[in-house]
Amino acid sequence: MPEHIQTAEADLAHRYLTIREATGALVAPLSPEDCTPQSMSDASPVKWHLAHTSWFFETFVLEPRGGDFRPFNPRFRVLFNSYYNAVGDQFFRPERGLVTRPGLAEVMAYREHVDAAMLRVLEAGALGAPGRAVVEVGLQHEQQHQELILSDVKHLLARNPGHPAYRDDLEVACEAPIERLSWHSVPGGIHQVGDAGPGFAFDNEGPRHDVLLREAKLGSRLVTNGEFLGFIEDGGYRRPEHWLSDGWAKVNERGWRAPLYWFDEDGERRIQTLGGPRALCSSEPVTHVSAYEADAYARWAGARLPTEHEWEVVAAPLPMKGNFVENARFHPAPASMGEPADGPRQLFGDTWEWTSSAYAPYPGYQAAAGALGEYNGKFMVNQLVLRGGSCATPNAHLRPTYRNFFYPDARWQFSGIRLARDE
Amino acid sequence: MPEHIQTAEADLAHRYLTIREATGALVAPLSPEDCTPQSMSDASPVKWHLAHTSWFFETFVLEPRGGDFRPFNPRFRVLFNSYYNAVGDQFFRPERGLVTRPGLAEVMAYREHVDAAMLRVLEAGALGAPGRAVVEVGLQHEQQHQELILSDVKHLLARNPGHPAYRDDLEVACEAPIERLSWHSVPGGIHQVGDAGPGFAFDNEGPRHDVLLREAKLGSRLVTNGEFLGFIEDGGYRRPEHWLSDGWAKVNERGWRAPLYWFDEDGERRIQTLGGPRALCSSEPVTHVSAYEADAYARWAGARLPTEHEWEVVAAPLPMKGNFVENARFHPAPASMGEPADGPRQLFGDTWEWTSSAYAPYPGYQAAAGALGEYNGKFMVNQLVLRGGSCATPNAHLRPTYRNFFYPDARWQFSGIRLARDE
Amino acid sequence: MPEHIQTAEADLAHRYLTIREATGALVAPLSPEDCTPQSMSDASPVKWHLAHTSWFFETFVLEPRGGDFRPFNPRFRVLFNSYYNAVGDQFFRPERGLVTRPGLAEVMAYREHVDAAMLRVLEAGALGAPGRAVVEVGLQHEQQHQELILSDVKHLLARNPGHPAYRDDLEVACEAPIERLSWHSVPGGIHQVGDAGPGFAFDNEGPRHDVLLREAKLGSRLVTNGEFLGFIEDGGYRRPEHWLSDGWAKVNERGWRAPLYWFDEDGERRIQTLGGPRALCSSEPVTHVSAYEADAYARWAGARLPTEHEWEVVAAPLPMKGNFVENARFHPAPASMGEPADGPRQLFGDTWEWTSSAYAPYPGYQAAAGALGEYNGKFMVNQLVLRGGSCATPNAHLRPTYRNFFYPDARWQFSGIRLARDE
Amino acid sequence: MPEHIQTAEADLAHRYLTIREATGALVAPLSPEDCTPQSMSDASPVKWHLAHTSWFFETFVLEPRGGDFRPFNPRFRVLFNSYYNAVGDQFFRPERGLVTRPGLAEVMAYREHVDAAMLRVLEAGALGAPGRAVVEVGLQHEQQHQELILSDVKHLLARNPGHPAYRDDLEVACEAPIERLSWHSVPGGIHQVGDAGPGFAFDNEGPRHDVLLREAKLGSRLVTNGEFLGFIEDGGYRRPEHWLSDGWAKVNERGWRAPLYWFDEDGERRIQTLGGPRALCSSEPVTHVSAYEADAYARWAGARLPTEHEWEVVAAPLPMKGNFVENARFHPAPASMGEPADGPRQLFGDTWEWTSSAYAPYPGYQAAAGALGEYNGKFMVNQLVLRGGSCATPNAHLRPTYRNFFYPDARWQFSGIRLARDE
Q1: Is 0.90 surpassed by the pTM of this model?
Q2: Chains A and C touch (3+ CB pairs under 8 A)
Q3: Which 8-state DSSP code applies to residue B376?
Q4: What value of ipTM does the predicted structure carry?
């Protein structure tokens, strides 16, 4: 075997272990009980995330290789299939929280079983480039689920009247001064957007292609809790003129009066975080808002949401810096007042930023053949693109071409607001 | 303190420990995960049952005594209040399965905390008769929840596609021969029904009073799986003429085609039990049927369901014998063919028997003052009375005056069918 | 043909015409539009009532006779079948309001077609006693639908923000003084209840049989709007201790704060009637309450609802007097203060009186064979019995044995409250 | 007054009358009953359309002029407000079908009242350009509701088991031969799209702006019933691989097996039309499909849906020809085989063509100030653009820049499929 391939597979094995261990570290603060329920249909039990990410490697890497591979448990093929129709049936999604067996210990054993088999395969160095590409997708997939574990656990614990913390040791500083919002130019004309390699990107990030932009402006930082409070106190949730019609319907149907996880206690505004309840920090970017709230805020502020291409064109040249795990924060970093910045701040790793762009295929996009073709393509309707990555996003996922997507009423992700306006 | 009171409280302490330990024994085969979810709105997590039964003693015995009593956790007052409006708010029932903290270990600690305090109180011998009466209600209440733990766990595990068993060591014999159904006379005229003491009875079992019955007949044993299969194979679930109108609506709305927990596998009729899946046993009493199915079966068979008073008048003189725990069965005992019986068999401890009687107050019934008055009285509408007790009912609850009650569409209890007919 | 039979059929023809014309008179104030919608699933379009009552004669009298009978429109067999499974399929009930064709004119033509055929049959005098009995059921059925037309139209017009009146000429007097509530004895012991002939009764009114009553008291008149207002102003709808558990759930789910059709306008309590909105009349019996509200009121007032047998035993010897049509009121008559009454007042023809009795078969009840056996029997679960008849009930239906029945949450019928209490 | 203005207002008066009369003509075949119900929440009663379009002129033209204007009925301000929050409250949309008063006759009187007042205003010639612009919007609005009357009536009558026709005199020819599908080039590069005046356009059609297209191909004609049947017979509705994920969910949730209004009778495929049931015509364009079905068909056919800009760039130079009213068809014209066409056929006036473009504001779009700003802008999320106009679209609405929009699961509009593919 040529040495560079040996190296590629050895590197992959190393990354495999690192990423799988990172998942384990995320789950360490949780009890078996914490890993069991499904707090709403959109979320999944932590136990399910742990198993499903293993199922991914078993189904798409190990099983196709045949040989002496034996599935850990043949029932898991259905039980932990998320949505791949080409793989066969799926367990009824809204009942994921009722599956108490396998328990957490057995799921961890499943992970070890898959890890051992994966390492044998990777160390044998016989995967070839196509096989390595599937492993790479599996690792990116695992990292996406790391973020989902955090958002789903946050949602679950927030339903608990005791307001428990996911971890007690998370940083809670709240800096007072906030940089004044300024505007950075989005130059008009033809630009290229989308992935051009050589690193990993999901299929929905390509093909790279030309887009035609009009000159515009992008806000220098994210909208803060303090600013959003201004919208609330100005009757933002009671005045239909700020809202898209579907958004106004949701406001009334669900009784929204503030972002998710905000609550009042003894007349004080508080916020439920992964570290437990805290006083609302004015300088911190607002998060856990739906696209409807983001859009209404922007309209109220005399601005609009950026398109995904405006965002990418501005973000592409800028350095990326995230917050995940390393800084043990899991909430966006306050916007410090300081030197004038050369470009917008907080583009990567604070909150996902709602754009006004519908999640749609790029020109020339073709979903891959087979089950992995279901990864992204079949979701390209009814959802909006978010860009930039949040404080719960693994650093490796922070890149200017990354396209996250959710329904506009979703609030349980770490989603925030950056303003744009026409020139 | 007079000796007989000392004795009464010592006896009570002994019974307290025995009954609380029996609950613990029921939970022993379950993992923390098993104790967490709520498989439907009617059911509760096992963890919740464990905590709520402790809350009962804390709220109705310990707290009113004051002194140095400290609640284990003040939040539990709301969290584990089932439905006592007089005690204050209750946690939103359909979300009981989302409460992962307290976890099972903490709930067990809560039980120990309450047990220690209760034993101190009981050993101090200062409760007095009213206090002892409340403890007695608490113990009866605990035993009711023992049965609910079993029915709720059965329901939860049955939603698991792996068909896991609650216990692997449960008896599975299925006897072939079945006693031919014969009819026992219910004499007409004025009878007395209802509790007359001196033992414990719930308030809904009294006042004892006269009822006027017409002569009738009561079936000598419960309807079997084999007989119910005859109804199914005769198109029972497809022919509206057998059904009450509301029952026919449920059949179609829920797609009922057999009792709950029956399923087909490779062309064989099987049944999910607490011991895992088994072949259907023809001689075993049918169970997990709704009142609608019981009524439709009876109509099809040219009979009717008994009234609760017909049942009681026949059952009152007969000896009671139950199956709970002792015989490690948790499914009804087959009807052996043997000597002609002097009275109907299987009246106690096989399946709850649906009656045609609406659950209503007996003449002169008055709910107690205070929160405990909510125990039974406020449910006296829309439900039907079941009599006799099931294989999951603690033996101490098997008595001829006991009135169980559920909505007619409920199927997750161990509920079966005894026929009656007019003379 | 013997003369007495000729006479029987001639009488029947006369009654047939009178009753059918009474239905037509009820519909005269309505437009084709008024006769089209279905304001909720429990109600039906007026047009549907007009057609269904004709379908009844066509299906159960004309069609079985064969001969040269031709159905007016073969599609009507399904379209206007209410719930008779033995007759075949039924049109989907919640969509009755979408059937714009046949229109009102065609439905009236259908009625004329059926009437002509019926009169030919009746005048031919060849029906025989069984045939005449079915015609009699059809006429009683028509009269039941006369009341439903009024309650359904009232419900429909009340959803109209313009608060239109069904008729503008309805009597609106409101007498101020109210007779003080006194109590009449219900003697204990064995009584006979149920129909004993010779006049018409529905099958659910028999068999006549013995019942055993305890001595009790029955209120001398209906509960008034003014008294019910006292319950409201004492927080009746906000205090769970007055309510059955299922009732309390409905109060909160539906936001009940007053009887149906009560509303506030410019700080004044008003009530929507068939004559349009009026000021609330304190001396008038409260109506359009559910059984839950009736029960909660009774509990609040230190009383209870009567059983159906208590009611019947007291009412049977008393003269009946109704209000229907003749006096053009369609709301209950105020309780005048006057001479002490020999028995309770307002037993017949003011409001239906909720009893605490579950609607169940009398001992020995057998539903008739064939489709007409579905008339009453299959509804004998989940409903409560109401007695006495309302201001919208045809006088011919006012009799002491008549058993009306509705679900306990129903409020759109003219249902009110009479108190009872134990001796 | 300058003569050209006099002429402008006179022309407007003439157009006003013509368009209002066209609405009246559409309603002529309907009974008062037909005009009353609302067959689903998305649809409205015909009576409501007739009133709402009059309300529009009353609210936006007559009322702001003040003077001696008196509203026909002040309650109508709320009752017939569709969704203009700036005008105030709206009647609860899902209950529009319960409003039987005003009846059809009163609504027609309302129309006459508004018409008379409008003609006085128009003839006075004092509106000025802004006022005339609002009248123009009102007329365009009226024409949009003309199409909705047809689609809503079609939906209502299709729920009637009698399958009635809206009109009995509608053309039913079905031509057999079908032009073979060929492909027309969409040239790549920068194009201009959007309205540039001088005629009327809705605000959502502008601003005119540059778009950058890749070279592509557009199908020469619409997809036919015969072709769509091929998709069905190939298991199209049973194979998830053709479907967007949200689409597949709808297929299963709603049991879709064919386009709306297709049904089977005696083994023959039939279709409900405004002229009643007909045999399915293979050469006729498929219509009443959702965007999900359009997308799934395209994927199955190895193609895709066009973007709205691809469609417009091709359609802009082509002549428009519609089918509305004049030819009394109300179903799309079959694709005749004939001379090779210079451009795609059937672009205007056969079926609305689903595009893959999310309905979003054009760059620089600003909703107007005031209530009329709610006309289009607040709906710009979650919907897809349709282009071209249908057989039920007034000819005046057929233009290359017109942007219709519906949720992707909508099927009751006359919506069909044109394919596109990448070069």
Answers
A1: yes
A2: no
A3: T
A4: 0.95
